[in-house]
Design goal:
The structure holds two protein chains of two kinds. Chain A has ten helices and 18 strands. Chain A is of the alpha+beta class. Chain A has a domain of about 80 residues. In chain A, the strands form three sheets. A 13-stranded mixed beta sheet of chain A has the order 1-2-3-4-7-8-9-10-11-14-15-17-18. Chain A has a three-stranded antiparallel beta sheet with strand order 12-13-16, with helices on one face. In chain A, helix 4 packs antiparallel against helix 6. The longest helix of chain A has about 70 residues. Chain A is flat, with a radius of gyration of 38 Å. The N and C termini of chain A lie far apart (about 100 Å). By secondary structure, chain B is an all-alpha fold. Chain B has a domain of about 120 residues. The longest helix of chain B has about 30 residues. Chain B is elongated and about 60 Å long. In chain B, about 40% of the residues are buried. The interface between A and B is large, with 31 and 40 residues.
Chain lengths: ~575, ~170
């Protein structure tokens, strides 16, 4: 029997040639599919390519008709590009690494409309979910002047904290009472007192030489003393427990103040201070922009992590389980992905600009330099730096665009739309470690106001409309600063003072009345549970303290009686 | 239909001219194809071995067919083993790092938990599969093979076109 099947070599070579032929035929299609799949996973929205061509001889890839859907808006593209040409380094491909020497992108357009929803990631999933939750925690005051009615929605008792706290306090008082009464019963005070009384009787007429009786008397006295000590310990526990309960009872008043504030939100009117008005008008739009910047920064941190530790990513999609693919970067080796430089020719608001991108890599520590984006042109400035080389990543981005038609801004609170016209928009975002600082500004001196035809009208709305419709300039500034988990948002605009003054003049009295109604509703829902909890705590204090005092007096009396009968007895 | 093909393949394999060792070797190599994700570079090597080495190709096909569903079933186990090897075993990290930065080796996707876990398990199972299959084929041929060969069902199977194709690559 021979070891090798020599006659199979030719069929095997034919099979190899067939596979190679199929690869040549379908490589473009496979590369296109892979690129779309990987891109879609990375961005969290559909990436589509019209045509892709691999030029193996020249290590070049051409992508025509690239469309990246927006992960934020359902019917909007993030960008579209007419042509991308990438020159690759061939050797790293053998290590399954993609190193792009130079990328030229032409015809880049942003925010173009699309026919279908291109989002692939649910709003509650992954980075998008985190960013959504992060945005929700930023408190933006509500303002609803479109209808002008200061209406109060029905308060849901479940929204209020005070009844819940009061119920919990009452339950805590009940359980404390049960524990303390059990403790009192377990002390055995009555047994000690009875035993002491019997011993006092026995000691009457007893001789000092009756050593056994004296020993019994000593033990009885010790029993009384031990009971007293346990009683003292219980007293301490009761005192501290009562202090906690009383503090909780006092805290109910603060909880009710918070509930007043919460219920006030149902009026859909902020406080009449200018900063509140600014936040109510432009806060949501500012948060939306900060959320988008944070989304990209978090994605960059996920896919461009600092350090050289092994990194796990989801495996490729296949019929079998995808598993996890682990990357093992090593110093002095090429990164798994590196885009050395890219020249971008882009179009914003029908104007052409150019920008340059360098050092985008999956392993910044290997590349050793931060990723940079830069673009300058008359009226346009863009600079971004993703420094993930060191352990604490620092991401900064700043952009400004002048003399371009700014997109209109809907202000549902006012029942109006703002057409800023040609103006200047600026954005700055810095995230170092977990600290974030961001600023969004809009300036225009040719503002046009358009009142929404839909929706109700009101006298308050009319007055505010008259106040703002005469304003032809717009200056909005939103700032975000602080810890990423709890940043502070401050929004201001030149409209704030005008609206606040008008509101105060027109709606001050009505607002005060509405606030009184709010407080009455909160009181009606909280008074009962609060009183019940407070009276339980008060009653508990009286009952347990009284029983403790009674038992203390009985034990004192028993101990004194014993000690009088045994004047010479000294216990340690 | 699939089950019928499998039975047909099993019967033909057991009655092929190959020795029990050749059938068992084919089955062992086929088990690697079945247990690991098919479109992996190492499976090109396995296919090359099956074709070039004088092992039973029907045995390999049978091994592939038998072990593919087992591979699907054991994927969670492969994932866990691969994870433990790639991420848990610190002593192996220098080896993975070196392999990851070598030419061609990363194309095998060895750094995927399912690929590595299934490859390790299939290689470990190769030897018991080989000896078990060899023993089974030997016993079968010594006991019931002749009766099966005389049955009408067997004659129907061997008359099919697939059998003709098999004869082209039968072990020598």
């Amino acid at each position: 029997m021979r070891l090798f099947r020599w006659k199979a070599i030719v069929p095997l070579l034919l099979l190899g040639a067939l596979v190679a032929g199929l690869w040549i035929l379908f490589a473009d299609r496979m590369a296109k599919g892979t690129t779309e799949s990987v891109g879609t996973t990375l961005v969290g929205a559909k990436v589509e390519i019209d045509r892709m061509h691999l030029d193996v001889a020249h290590s070049r890839v051409e992508v025509r008709g690239l469309t990246v859907a927006s992960p934020f808006e359902p019917l909007e593209n993030l960008l579209q590009a007419d042509l991308l040409v990438a020159d690759l380094e061939p050797l790293p491909l053998l290590e399954k690494k993609l190193v792009i020497d130079r990328l030229a992108a032409t015809g880049l357009r942003f925010g173009t409309p699309r026919q279908s929803d291109g989002r692939t990631v649910g709003q509650s999933d992954g980075v998008m979910g985190q960013v959504e939750r992060w945005g929700q925690q930023l408190q933006v005051p509500a303002l609803q002047l479109a209808t002008g009615k200061i209406s109060l929605d029905r308060l849901d008792p479940a929204q209020l904290n005070t009844p819940r706290l009061a119920t919990a306090l009452a339950a805590q008082a009940d359980s404390s009472r049960t524990a303390w009464v059990s403790g009192l019963d377990a002390l055995g005070t009555q047994a000690a007192v009875d035993s002491s009384a019997r011993m006092v009787e026995r000691l009457k007429g007893a001789k000092l030489t009756d050593v056994k009786l004296l020993g019994d008397a000593r033990r009885t006295l010790e029993q009384v003393k031990r009971t007293e000590e346990r009683l003292t310990a219980l007293e301490r526990s009761v005192t501290s427990g009562m202090a906690t309960l009383q503090a909780s009872a006092a805290g109910l008043a603060e909880a009710r103040q918070r509930d007043y504030a919460l219920a006030r939100g149902l009026l859909k009117l902020p406080g009449l201070d200018a900063p509140d008005i600014g936040a109510a008008l432009f806060g949501r739009a500012a948060v939306q922009r900060f959320q988008r910047a944070l989304y990209w920064a978090q994605l960059a941190r996920r896919y461009m992590p600092p350090g050289l530790l092994p990194r796990a990513t989801p495996g490729p999609r296949r019929v079998r389980r995808a598993g996890t693919t682990v990357h093992f970067p090593r110093s002095n080796e090429p990164p798994a992905f590196l885009l050395k430089s890219a020249d971008l020719s882009l179009s914003v608001a029908s104007r052409g600009y150019s920008a340059r991108l360098t050092g985008v890599t999956s392993d910044p520590a290997l590349y050793g330099r931060p990723a940079e984006a830069r673009g300058t042109a008359p009226g346009f400035r863009l600079a971004a730096l993703l420094d993930h080389v060191r352990a604490t990543p620092r991401d900064t981005a700043a952009a400004s665009l002048a003399d371009v038609a700014l997109p209109s801004l809907r202000l549902p609170a006012l029942g109006a739309r703002l057409e800023p016209g040609a103006g200047v928009v600026g954005f700055r975002f810095v995230m170092q470690g977990d600290q974030v600082q961001a600023r969004w500004t809009v300036t225009s001196d040719r503002v046009r106001w358009v009142r929404d035809s839909a929706g109700g009208r009101s006298s308050i709305g009319d007055v505010v409309w008259r106040a703002i419709s005469g304003i032809s300039t717009l200056e909005v500034s939103a700032r975000l600063a602080g810890d990423l988990d709890h940043p502070e948002l401050a929004v201001g605009s030149n409209l704030d003072r005008a609206i606040a003054d008008r509101l105060r003049a027109m709606a001050g009295t009505e607002l005060a009345a509405a606030e009184r109604r709010v407080r009455a509703q909160v009181d009606s829902l909280t008074d009962g549970p609060m009183s019940a909890a407070r009276s339980k705590v008060a009653a508990l204090g009286g009952e347990v303290t009284g029983r403790l005092g009674g038992q203390r007096a009985q034990l004192d009396q028993a101990r004194r009686a014993l000690e009088q009968r045994l004047p010479g007895l000294r216990l340690p | 239909m699939l089950l019928l093909k499998l039975i047909q393949s099993l019967v033909k394999t057991l009655h092929s001219e190959g020795t029990p060792g050749q059938v068992a070797a084919g089955l062992a190599l086929g088990s690697i194809l079945g247990l690991t994700p098919l479109l992996s570079l190492h499976n090109a090597v396995v296919v090359g071995l099956i074709v070039l080495l004088n092992v039973s190709i029907p045995g390999a096909m049978l091994g592939w067919a038998l072990f593919t569903p087992i591979g699907f079933l054991l994927d969670p186990l492969f994932d866990a083993i691969g994870r433990a090897l790639l991420l848990g075993a610190l002593a192996l990290r220098p080896l993975w790092t070196a392999l990851y930065n070598l030419p061609v080796v990363p194309l095998t996707s060895f750094n995927n938990t399912v690929v590595l876990g299934s490859l390790v398990v299939s290689l470990a199972l190769c030897v018991p599969v080989f000896y078990g299959a060899r023993l089974g084929v030997t016993r079968y041929r010594a006991t019931v093979a002749e009766r099966v060969r005389r049955s009408a069902l067997y004659r129907a199977m061997t008359a099919s076109k697939l059998y003709g194709l098999y004869r082209l690559f039968r072990p020598e």
